[in-house]
Recover the amino acids of this structure.
């Protein structure tokens, strides 16, 4: 008789599941200052905390109702309700868009290095993922990207600002990409919009193949509650809504989201903290002779070279977490640091100075700011 293990081996998933890459974020042991995952390093709005205290036991027994909150959020962003869908973070948004618009044999297009979850969700649907690699400047290769579009291209994802580089793509270039591929959905991932300011959200009513993704995990500080949004042409959003679960966003997130978006004063305060901190990180790294790249996000990417693991280890010893991005295409030796509130930036810079000294770093090893 066959064993249970042998019987289990008879059951196999789809070939796409076997072939798709896996994403394993290093979330364990994060008992330190979290400058590794681009989270809000401080707190959500005080209005969110007050709303949390008002939640009742009975309320937790009810299935979450997404539509009323979608109306509030849509109005806040100047959209119609049917132009917006709330999602379980942008991770689910990427998955839903891929499932809705891609079939096996279709092509999808991204620029690397970028957010790895694009690879994961696209690979689940098609083997036709095309990647356009940035050069050493890490800026968006617009002309080469445009040339990579073919009649088989059905999904294009562009992050602006991009993760892990911080590079941006101009609205003019994004609209040109949408126009060059009318048969494809262009999803612009604006997870880091608040730290930059330029958006295509106002174009979703006039560009029929444009979808904009936003998250409430970064500037709003709701990463633990997992809530994001997709905005686009009502027809496209209706297709994605069919694919999504009606209960994809939990009730706690839905309860606090209206308060989070309404508190614009708190949001602006936090964004200014980050922008100021980002420039101070740039200045410190330039003084230390560490190569960096321009960033419009809430982080800075630095080139440490072969000592990247040593630096991350030394920082951890000092109670500060960094993200080693060496596994990203074209990023060997690169490390990312998140900018947060003033005190966290101070601690991060102080730890960087000590850690670089501990690994024997000298300014001569750096190449200055890119």
């Amino acid at each position: 008789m066959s064993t249970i293990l042998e019987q289990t081996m008879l059951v196999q998933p789809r070939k796409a599941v076997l072939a798709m890459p896996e994403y394993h974020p290093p979330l364990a042991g994060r008992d330190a200052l979290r400058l590794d995952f681009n989270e809000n390093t401080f707190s959500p709005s005080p209005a969110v905390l007050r709303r949390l205290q008002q939640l009742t036991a009975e309320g937790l027994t009810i299935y979450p109702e997404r539509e009323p909150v979608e109306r509030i959020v849509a109005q806040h962003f100047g959209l119609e309700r049917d132009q917006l869908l709330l999602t379980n973070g942008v991770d689910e948004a990427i998955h839903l868009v891929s499932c809705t618009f891609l079939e096996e044999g279709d092509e999808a297009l991204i620029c690397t290095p970028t957010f790895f979850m694009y690879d994961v969700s696209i690979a689940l649907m098609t083997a036709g993922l095309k990647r356009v690699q940035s050069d050493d400047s890490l800026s968006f290769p617009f002309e080469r990207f445009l040339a990579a579009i073919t009649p088989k291209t059905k999904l294009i994802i562009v992050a602006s600002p991009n993760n892990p580089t911080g590079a941006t793509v101009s609205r003019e270039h994004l609209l040109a990409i949408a126009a060059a591929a009318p048969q494809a959905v262009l999803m612009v991932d604006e997870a880091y919009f608040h730290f930059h300011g330029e958006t295509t959200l106002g174009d979703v009513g006039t560009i029929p193949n444009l979808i904009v993704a936003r998250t409430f995990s970064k500037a709003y500080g709701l990463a633990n509650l997992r809530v994001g949004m997709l905005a686009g042409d009502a027809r496209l959003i209706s297709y994605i809504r069919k694919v999504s679960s009606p209960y994809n966003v939990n009730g706690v997130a839905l309860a606090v989201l209206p308060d989070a978006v309404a508190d614009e004063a708190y949001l602006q305060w936090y964004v200014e903290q980050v922008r100021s901190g980002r420039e101070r990180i740039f200045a410190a790294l330039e003084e230390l002779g560490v190569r960096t790249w321009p960033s419009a996000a809430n982080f800075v990417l630095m080139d440490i070279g072969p000592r990247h693991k040593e630096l991350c280890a030394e920082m951890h010893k000092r109670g500060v977490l960094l993200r080693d991005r060496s596994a990203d295409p074209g990023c060997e030796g690169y490390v990312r640091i998140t900018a947060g509130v003033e005190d966290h930036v101070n601690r991060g810079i102080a730890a960087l100075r000590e850690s670089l000294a501990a690994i024997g770093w000298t300014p001569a090893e750096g190449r200055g700011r890119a």
